[in-house]
Batch of 4 targets.
Target 1
Amino acid sequence: MLKNLIYAISCIFFMVSCKSSTKQPAQVSTATKPDPTQSLIQNLKPIIQGVWVKQDYIEKIIQTRSPIQATDKVIGITTMHINSAQIDGDSLLVRVGYDNYQPGDVILKFRPGKNRSAFLFGEDELGYSTQNNDTTLVLYQYYNKQWVLTPYVKALKQSTGNDLQEGINYLINKGLIAGNYTLKDSTGKLKEITFRDDGTVSGLPNFKRYFVENSFESKKMNNLDQLTFNIFSSDEKTYTFKIENNSLTLYEVKANADSTLLVKGKLKYQLLRKPGR
């Protein structure tokens, strides 16, 4: 009896020993490590999204109150349309406008450039800087053994169409023309006129839209600042304008004898800007 009991206890100890010595298989993690490039892209999407315009160009227009006085700033890429929803892998095709009128495309690669916070942008680099909650895109171009920096300001959160000038138009309208005015008509009656950032106008009979000329690639008939109402329509009308103090003055224009220059004609409208916008 005692011999049988000892044998049973020995068997139990042997079974426990074998079980405890059996190695458990290692747990294999199925979690995928995050892609650092894609994480970076997700962070950059809201920063770079939008329509961007060459900063010194817009600043000179507002300073001189004259697009024609800022033509020396119309060099290279003057506007960029960035749609971050179209990022493919680590690349994005960016629509750009050269010299205010020539369309083109540049590939933005989300790969670090030589400059801080900059990425490969065709043969150049594109970065950004943020100050006082305002973000500026910076184009880095290497000339004569040094980096030349060109800043761009955001005009619109997104493009509304295929017009590469829409951001330029918006900022010119906003900085020069947009606002509420009073106009004294031929009877002496005061009328309320409103020019808006989006290029619409109300209060002027027969005129619904306005456009401030900003492309002066042609040498002919481009010697005066021009504001055109109802452009590309049967009732299109162009005036030359002058902004002085709080007044916007529009004059009729005509071609000179050999149709090479515009000549200022008689006064058509003199609008007084009301306080505020």
Target 2
Amino acid sequence: MDPEFLWYIPNQAEPGHRGDDVVDGHNSLETLTAQARALEEHGWAGALIGTGWGRPDTFTVATALAARTTTFKPLIAVRPGYWQPAQFAAATATLHHLTYGRVLINVVSGKDHPAAYGDDDQADRYARTKEFMRIVRALWEHPEVSIKGEHFQVTDSTVQPRLPGGHPPLYFGGASDAAERVAATEADVQLFWGEPRDGIRERIDRLRRLSDELGRELPPLEFGLRITTVVRDTTAEAWAEAESRVADLAAGRGLMPRDPNRHAAVGQQRLLDLAARGDVLDDNLYTAPGRYGAGGAGTTWLVGSAEDVARSLRRYQDLGISRFILSDTPYLTEITRQGAALLPLLRAT
């Protein structure tokens, strides 16, 4: 399968996300459109657009950017509970139809602020996520659906327009046992954060076994990697930049406020534990940022020349990774730099 390379667009109310340029109108339609169009121009397939209460609404941002581009694929992060499955299935089918099949979906079960939007059903979030994904998929695939679950129900429900060319793929993340059981049966793509290759290999093997044990009825699960990539003309320049950033973070000068949930998620804790194994793992996986950063994709970085980083990403690809979500800041600058220097090397294999 040909790999797909996506970026990240930070729909943030506050400027300066993870070191991005602080400019007026940082989250204006013009600024975000400039990033989406730059992605098209420099060979990226699209971008992940994150979700969380307190951010601009992700689906609205994605719709606006899709309307101003021609090939850009928004990977839209969504939360069950914020969305009901029937409304979400209808909205997504409409956008997928209007964009000629450009929509990708990332279903998120991580902690948020559900009380702020009236979501009081958090007792078993992974069971609820499983129901959400099953109902959404059923609505996309069948003309009329009636399902009564523990968390959601629909009766005589249908979604228009129909999607004869196929529905959007469902990306999903999570490293807990409960999350992996959802991915093994319901997801199209399991997303990993930037762990060493031995950890990724172990998780891919486990998810494939789980898929068999749980009787997966979908096509084989695919795998994706979400990671920060610090790329410069030479290896030395890249490491000087990365170490300078970590020094700033250690001195409290960084622009990566700590995520209050950074120790709560199993996947996040796996990343934070990596620093005990060393500041640099594999060839160029930098773990030191996790001591000071926000978490997620900011916890570990691949650092080096374009050749160094391409070599590492190809080794992840050899393990079975086919979807890559990369990023670095300033976002627009790095879309261009890495689009010109890194992507051609990745596509040359």
Target 3
Amino acid sequence: MFTGIVEELGTVAGIEQQGDAVRLRIEAARVLADAAPGDSIAVNGCCLTVAARDQDTWTADVMQETLDRTSLAGAGRGDRVNLERAVTPSTRLGGHIVQGHVDGVGTVLRREPSEHWELVTVALPAGLARYLVEKGSITVDGVSLTVVSVSEDSFTVSLIPETLARTTLGTRAVGDPVNLEVDVLAKHVEKLLAGGGREEER
């Protein structure tokens, strides 16, 4: 589990194609301070497992399911990526509950800068709009954000200078893909209201 507060920008240092999988090697510093094989690190909001590490890089195996459902399929050597270690019992929950399980890939539609912040509109994949509400939470490329407005096929978020400077969202251009994870609590509520969580009577 994560909080959607990006710890650092890493760099894709290597990509090894393995047919139905990819082995990513990512250069980092802060997230490697206590990382060990088996630990979880979110990469652009996608939970990956540390397979190996050295002083400056760590490696993760990305299976076909992940490549099919996230923007990591288009990752290239030299790309910057948002990194966050999994939470611990003493972690401050500065964002919201994030699983690192990407629900779909959106596309940046518009960027509207102002003097102190920037309004960004992102296209929503079909079926995700029902989980978004104004002032609710969404994760974009691993960044916990507050929804400003939502329509049937898009939503907007307002990015402060700190987010623009410390995450990949500062450089995402119109047309770029972004990983989206909706609030898991909304999905659980939907299932319960539909009766999907009711035990059968005996």
Target 4
Amino acid sequence: MSVEVGNKLQGKVTGITNFGAFVELPGGSTGLVHISEVADSYVKDVNDHLKVGDLVEVKVLSEKDGKVALSIKKAIDRPDVQTSSYSQRPPRPGRVENRSKDFRPKGNFKSKESFEDKMARFLKTSEENLSTLKRNTGAKQGGRGGRRG
């Protein structure tokens, strides 16, 4: 088989570096399997997964200027399964899926209160809250010691 993008080939690991492994392909060409393409899980050290002399199946990702990029993890045939674990989570209980983000009332909603009535109610509750706050914090103010006077 020739070295063409998308082909799966059998190769022999000829060298291991901290950034990947060099694989000799049929026909004498050599390609690099980057550390991110060695396995599906996190790879801290390539030596934990490969040894010099191992025969591996690789998939050709790209070929440019004689440099061949290879992948071991993409060479493994898997059924079409979503790779994101987030999308496979079950919905949270009590949660409505596909809910609209628009929180405005729908339809011909008419407010029972006018704007002026709402503003007057807001001002009244606001003044009540401020007076309660002042009453409760008035005794707590002061510096060191008792009051002087």
